[in-house]
Each structure stands twice: as structure tokens, then as C-alpha cells.
């Protein structure tokens, strides 16, 4: 189950909600449909809430979830998130289990007998959660209601209840999104299914095609446009937040003034993500006292100075050929350029998003008992990112501290803890990953990967010395936390620049560390043996390759390993990396 995807989970404690007296019209339209939609001339059992990035879909559904829970009409919720700390929130795998769990917790089902049917379904088929979503829905949600003989009738005191699913576009792949939609449509077409469903997403092509073709007859669409007066709500949001800033910094009540407010509302163009990012930026950096020695732009010390920086973007927006996200892109660029070294900051951000979940950790480095949730982390814990990337203590805050309006950087060491970076909105990652939007700040995935590999070798001696032991050490030893081989450079020039670092770091220390931590040590040895040779030519190896290969073979021989013969190593000049057949074997115990 993905407990972090439930609307009131601890992980979502800081998730956006609608402020009082904002988004009133759209909220009332949704609530009215939930409670009385069955009275429509052509009643629908699915509502699709869509709109561009930053229009407040997640905040609206979070608020609707709270209101429905208070009214007793919330059956279940699932909030997808591609930038969450847990992979379960971007995957389809836990969706049905999470929904079924919440449905069973609802008080209206006590004593009805649905619980027993669900438990029986799991006992009869323990592999049910590995099956396709259509089957899971059928066995865990639909069949129990059919079995209780409540076909087409509401449960006692149940009324009209809703299942909320937010951020469907943030689920892993379009195929998974289509499978989810198909399973949900299958459910609502069953007469025994007692719920209505609200799905919120961006209007991506695959989702839009489904709702406008396959599910058209079952769907009511609600698009967040100017009909719902977002400018008035954004103004209310600004007014409330500026009141708090004035109190906190003892600023006169006339600040920021009507002109500034007009510009801020106009620049937002109905995008709440713009407004929330502006306020976080104006409130200031999250640098703590221990980081006070770091460089700070003297022109951005006060909220008034930071507001002026934002207002200065307005003329650029009006003079440009306005794209739909032009103002937001300029805001993101302006915030990034407040960093002492903006390009380094982008490299850090790209590196963080390069780290991926260790999906098959037990296959690489076995451990008898590991909770599934611990294996499925979407991003690598902060302690490991710091361990691999920081050339000196404090570099993380130097690179990311000025970006507190865009990314949450947890304070403290948390050495070995499961604490993650948190990006406040996916649209920032969209900006970073799109060269047409980020311009000269763009860092390609390949260059980001090479940055990680370069830092791996530059910090190798220090990060091995500071490595935590036990279960957390195992996460490092998986060597599976980036999207490609953590030892291999994708560009020859990157390897050439890093050669001095490969020669300087302690290859013997690394090899002995891997050899003495069994598990899949031969696998890692082979990967390194190939990686250092990747950019060598047929007529000779580079100094870094010669150094690393000589040390690896020496250490393995000293520890009684079986190593490839000289002919196989020589042959590798012409046949690069016959990795599966190297023949590195530890001694038998």
C-alpha cells in the first residue's frame, strides 16, 4: 500500500490546499456534482478535472478531500507525485491496494460483510497484487459489493461517495495511465460499484484522448480556465501572504502597494504555482545559522529587494513573444540566477533527479528481510547524495540554499536516515529538463550523469571513510542509484577531464572495500574494470585505466580471487568489455 499517497498522510502534511474564500466557484461545482450529480439529465460517474501546469489542481483536490471527509462522503484518495520521496506515488502498482484499504476503513461499511470478502480474495490468491489492475479492481473492490447482494443499491447510510485521484499524468508511463483509466472505467460501468470518481491531471494527449473518446459517455469534464476567476483568488492569496510578511519583517501596511499587486496578479496569468513561488522567494532563503557564512546577494537581503527583482521581470514578459509559460520560466530563471554559481546549482538539481529507486536491490545485494517500502524509494536519501556530491561540507547549501522557494533541502546530517529532497512543483523540473525553456542553464541528462560520475571519483576517498554501516551501507553498495552505470562517463571529454581525479583517488581502498563486502562484489568489480577502459583505444590504454586495472587485479589476487588471464585482458583492446565473461570469482568459503 502507498500510505504516502492518501490525502491526509504525513508525507502530504505540507501539500497545497485552497486558502479560505479562494477557488470557491470550482469547489462548489465539484461538491455539487458529488452530492447531486445523479440528478442531472445525463448523470456521469466520472469527473475529469484538468488544466495547465500550476493552475491549482492538487490544491483543489486536497481541499475537496478534506471537505468530503468531514461530510463522510470520501471513500478513498490517491495523490500521484513524480517528485515524491517514494516510488509508490508514481507507480500504478499500489493504487488498487491503497484504494481498497481506505474503502474498508469507512465507517458505513461496518457490519456489512465486505471486509470478509476482501480478506478471502487475498487468502485465495496471495498474488492478486501482482496482477493487472482490471483484475485487482474486480477482486478487491467490485466482487465484494456484488457478493453482499447490494447490486445497484446504496449501502446503509452510505449516500453518494467519491474516490479522488490526483496527478494521474505523474504516473510512470502513458501505458500505465491508460491501464488505470481503463480499470476505473470498467469499475464505474459495473452496477454494483457504489462510488463516483474524480480524476485530476494535466490535459496530456493520452489522457485527453481517453476521456474524449473511450470514456466520453461516462465523463463530465471540468477545465480550470478563467471562468473560475483565478485572478481574484490569486489576489486574495497574495494579500494574505503579504500580511504575514509585513508582520514578520515589520514592514509598513502600505507595502507592496496597488501597482505591485496588479503586476504580480497579471504576471501569474492564472497559475497558482507562479504565485506560491513568488511568495516563497520574497519570504527569503532557508539558510540556517550554520550556513550564514555562505555568499548572499546583497541586493536580495530584504523582502522589498526580492520583490523588486520579481517586478523587474514584468517588462521582459510584456516585451517578449509570450509563450504560455513565459512568465513562469522567467521567474524560475531569475531565482536560479540568484545562486552564486547558477550552472553548478542546475547540475546539483539534475544530479538529484538522476538518482533513481533501487528497484531490484535484493537481486544485486541480497538481504533476508527488507520492507518493500524501503526498497522503493523514488529518490536517493539526502545523506547519500551529499556523500557522493559534496566536495567540501556546505557545498549543498551553497548550490541549493538560494533555491528555497523551489526545493526543500532538509537541514542536518541525517546520516543513514530516509530523508529526501522535495521539489515543490513538477513544473520546475519540466523547466530544467527542457532546453527550449531553460536556455543557457540547460544541462543534458548525459552531462548530469557525467557530473555524478566525476563527483563519485573526486569524493571517493572521503565518502568511503564516512560511509554508514549496516542497512544504509547496503544502499550504497547496490551501485544502482543512477539511471546508467555510476562508474561510466557518457562523453570522452568528461573522462579525459576526470583522469587526474581517477589517478588521485585510492583505487586499492575502493577495491578492498568492495571485496570485503561480499554480496555482488564480483558484479561491481566487473563494472569498474569495464568503465575505466571505456574510452581507451585499440593501440593503448589511458593512464587512469592502467592504474585502476593494475590495482584491481593486484588486490583480487592478494585475496585469493580467480582473475582473467593476461590474454583476455590484452584482447579487450579490440573487443571492449566482454563484461559477462570476465571470470572474476571470489575464493570459495
From TrEMBL:
Residues 45-203 form the NACHT domain. This is NACHT domain-containing protein. SUPFAM superfamilies: P-loop containing nucleoside triphosphate hydrolases. It comes from the Eukaryota. It comes from Ephemerocybe angulata. Keywords: Repeat.
Amino acid at each position: 500500500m502507498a500510505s504516502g499517497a492518501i490525502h491526509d498522510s504525513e508525507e502530504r502534511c505540507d501539500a497545497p490546499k485552497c486558502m479560505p474564500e479562494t477557488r470557491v466557484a470550482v469547489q462548489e461545482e465539484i461538491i455539487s456534482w458529488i452530492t447531486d450529480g445523479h440528478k442531472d439529465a445525463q448523470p456521469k460517474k466520472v469527473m475529469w478535472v484538468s488544466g495547465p501546469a500550476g493552475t491549482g489542481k492538487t490544491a483543489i483536490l486536497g481541499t475537496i478531500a478534506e471537505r468530503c471527509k468531514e461530510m463522510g462522503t470520501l471513500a478513498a484518495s490517491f495523490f500521484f507525485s513524480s517528485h515524491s520521496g517514494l516510488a509508490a506515488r508514481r507507480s500504478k502498482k499500489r493504487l488498487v491496494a491503497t484504494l481498497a484499504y481506505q474503502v474498508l476503513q469507512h465507517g458505513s461499511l461496518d457490519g456489512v460483510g465486505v471486509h470478509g470478502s476482501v480478506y478471502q480474495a487475498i487468502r485465495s490468491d496471495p498474488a492478486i497484487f501482482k496482477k493487472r489492475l482490471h483484475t485487482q479492481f474486480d477482486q478487491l473492490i467490485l466482487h465484494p459489493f456484488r457478493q453482499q447482494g447490494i447490486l445497484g443499491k446504496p449501502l446503509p447510510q452510505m449516500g453518494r461517495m467519491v474516490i479522488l485521484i490526483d496527478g494521474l499524468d505523474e504516473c510512470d508511463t502513458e501505458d500505465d495511465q491508460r491501464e488505470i483509466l481503463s480499470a476505473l472505467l470498467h469499475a464505474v460501468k459495473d452496477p454494483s460499484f457504489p462510488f463516483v470518481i474524480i480524476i485530476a491531471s494535466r490535459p496530456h494527449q493520452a489522457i485527453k484522448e481517453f476521456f474524449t473518446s473511450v470514456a466520453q459517455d461516462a465523463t463530465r469534464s471540468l477545465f480550470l480556465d478563467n471562468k473560475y476567476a483565478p485572478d481574484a483568488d490569486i489576489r486574495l492569496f497574495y494579500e494574505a501572504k503579504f500580511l504575514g510578511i509585513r508582520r514578520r519583517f515589520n514592514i509598513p501596511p502600505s507595502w507592496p502597494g496597488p501597482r505591485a499587486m496588479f503586476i504580480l496578479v497579471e504576471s501569474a496569468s492564472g497559475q497558482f504555482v507562479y504565485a506560491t513561488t513568488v511568495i516563497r522567494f520574497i519570504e527569503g532563503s532557508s539558510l540556517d545559522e550554520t550556513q550564514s557564512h555562505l555568499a548572499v546577494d546583497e541586493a536580495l537581503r530584504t523582502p522589498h529587494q526580492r520583490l523588486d527583482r520579481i517586478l523587474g521581470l514584468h517588462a521582459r514578459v510584456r516585451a517578449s513573444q509570450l509563450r504560455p509559460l513565459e512568465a513562469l520560466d522567467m521567474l524560475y530563471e531569475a531565482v536560479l540566477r540568484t545562486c552564486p554559481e547558477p550552472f553548478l546549482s542546475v547540475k546539483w538539481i539534475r544530479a538529484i533527479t538522476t538518482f533513481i529507486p533501487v528497484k531490484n536491490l535484493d537481486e544485486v545485494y541480497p538481504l533476508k528481510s527488507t520492507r518493500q517500502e524501503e526498497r522503493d524509494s523514488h529518490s536517493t536519501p539526502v545523506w547519500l547524495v551529499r556523500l557522493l556530491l559534496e566536495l567540501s561540507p556546505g557545498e549543498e547549501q551553497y548550490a541549493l540554499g538560494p533555491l528555497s522557494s523551489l526545493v526543500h533541502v532538509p537541514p542536518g546530517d541525517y546520516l543513514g536516515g530516509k530523508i529526501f529532497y522535495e521539489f515543490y512543483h513538477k513544473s520546475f523540473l519540466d523547466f530544467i529538463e527542457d532546453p527550449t525553456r531553460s536556455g543557457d542553464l540547460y544541462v543534458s541528462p548525459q552531462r548530469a550523469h557525467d557530473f555524478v560520475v566525476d563527483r563519485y571519483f573526486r569524493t571517493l576517498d572521503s565518502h568511503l571513510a564516512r560511509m554508514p554501516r549496516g542497512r544504509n551501507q547496503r544502499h550504497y553498495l547496490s551501485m544502482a542509484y543512477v539511471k546508467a552505470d555510476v562508474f561510466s562517463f557518457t562523453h570522452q571529454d568528461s573522462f579525459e577531464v576526470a583522469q587526474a581525479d581517477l589517478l588521485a583517488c585510492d583505487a586499492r581502498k575502493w577495491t578492498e572495500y568492495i571485496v570485503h563486502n561480499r554480496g555482488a562484489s564480483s558484479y561491481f568489480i566487473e563494472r569498474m574494470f569495464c568503465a575505466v577502459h571505456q574510452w581507451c583505444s585499440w593501440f593503448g590504454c589511458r593512464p587512469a585505466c592502467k592504474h585502476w586495472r593494475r590495482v584491481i587485479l593486484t588486490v583480487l589476487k592478494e585475496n585469493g580471487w580467480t582473475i582473467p588471464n593476461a590474454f583476455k585482458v590484452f584482447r579487450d583492446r579490440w573487443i571492449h568489455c566482454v563484461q559477462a565473461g570476465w571470470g572474476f570469482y571470489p575464493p570459495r568459503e
